Amino acid sequence: MKRKIEGKRVMMLHGSSDLYGASKIFLLTAEILSDSGVAVLVILSEDGPLADELKKLGIRVELVRLGIIRRKYFNISGLFNRLKVTFEAYKKLVALAEEEKITHVYSNTAAVWVGALLSRMKGYTHIWHLHEIIEQPKFFAVWMGKLVEYNAHKVIVVSEAVKKNWAKHVSANKLHLVYNGIDYNPYLCKSVDLRKELNIPNEAMIIGMIGRVNSWKGQEYFLEISEELNKKFLNLYFLLVGDAFPGDEHLFEGLEQRILENKFSDKIINLGFRKDISHVLATMDIFILPSILPDPFPTVILEAMASKKPVVATAQGGALEMIEHGETGYHIPLNEAPKAASIIGDLINNKGQIDKVGEEARKSVIENFSLPKYGQKILNIFS
User: What pLDDT, on a 0 to 100 scale, did the predictor assign at position 74?
Assistant: First the structure.
């Protein structure tokens, strides 16, 4: 029997409508709460795939520009713009909250600030789900810490690394560690291999990464590693999946240009955004997530592990908690492409090890990062 929670009415705020990591966790959280009897009202800044999936579940979705904070707004005019949009959003959210008789506000990611204002002014219980590690600029990290401390009743953190970061400013009794969990079924079933679609020979080995195109996710480092590996191996292909935030399309265009300039550009395929991630992962032999800043708890690593792929990730952030080096994946150094390529090269030379590590990765992710565990902890926080 599904656990039921009575009397809770939650307004859930999220700043995008994509289906990348934080959005997937938002979708699962909304579904878990809705299935438990909580009345859920979702507010998104924009329409898109996430909104579509929520509506399929029968969850009400309203579109309101929430004044999401991104790095491009870190200037005087940008901050004034965000304050203006946030205040306009606040007025709309007040009306919706009163209409729905909201009891709780749930803010997903540190980029969503208006929930703090709404809860503070109207007295709602505020639960803030933090997926970020914010270290620089230092004044902003301190300011964000104070904002969370004074405007959240409970703070969900997605890894020990994230918890350690926010514990500098937020009371320990407010912090609740909840590892992400996902529905692994799409990755456990036999998926479609995309080699034919991509015109990649069956005997080739495919190394790939999936992630938003931004300044820190590591696409540039991925290309550097690919160059090192292509110097040593003849039959490798490299697959990139992911697009940029709306307004940052120039980053994707820059990546395309960087690929064209690569000496081995004919071995690199950039697919942009894809919905069929289980098929993409099924096509890869090795998965790399070479983030150049600490990645809090990348959901895509869980997906890759469930797909029985050895995951190679930079040795920082949540990856240190997700992957046991040499057993369920590998850690590589930051910005040292020759060393990273050497570690990956040893794996390429040992197909048996690829299979063994992939098997262990799947076992680990199902045992330690399951959806039932995630759901139970989320319901405990809202109870």
Answer: 65
Return d(Cα 148, Cα 128) in angstroms, integer: 8
Q: Single out the residue of 173, 145, 141, 178 nearest to residue 159, CA to CA.
A: 178
CA atoms lying within 13 Å on the CB side of residue 351:
4
Q: CA-based Rg of the chain, rounded to a whole angstrom?
A: 21
Question: Using CA atoms, how far apart are residues 382 and 42, in angstroms rounded to an integer?
Answer: 16
Q: How far is CA 343 from CA 69, 218, 340, 355, 368, in A?
A: 37, 17, 5, 16, 26
Q: Would you say 231 and 200 are in contact if contact means Cβ atoms under 8 Å apart?
A: no
Cα dist from 170 to 94, 146, 166, 188, whole Å? 26, 7, 6, 38
How far apart are the C-alpha atoms of 72 and 46, rounded to whole Å?
18
pLDDT of residue 80: 74
DSSP 3-state percent helix, strand, coil across the chain (nearest 5): 50, 15, 35
Q: Report the amino acid identity of residue 29.
A: T
Both tokens of 90, joined, read 């606040």
SS3 (DSSP) at 75? coil
Q: Which residues contact 336 (CB under 8 A, 6 or more apart)?
A: none
According to the model, what pLDDT value does residue 47 have? 95
Distance CA 310, CA 301 (A): 10
Is the previous residue joined to 49 through a cis bond, with omega within 30 degrees of 0? no
Please, what's the b/e burial string for 120-142 (b: 16 or more CB within 10 A of its CB; e: otherwise)? eeeebbbbbbbbbbbeeeeeebe
DSSP 17-71: -S-SHHHHHHHHHHHHHHHTT-EEEEEESS-SHHHHHHHHTT-EEEE-------G
pLDDT at site 140: 87
Which amino acid, 184?
Y
pLDDT < 70 regions, the chain:
1-2, 71-74, 78
Amino acid letter, 137: P
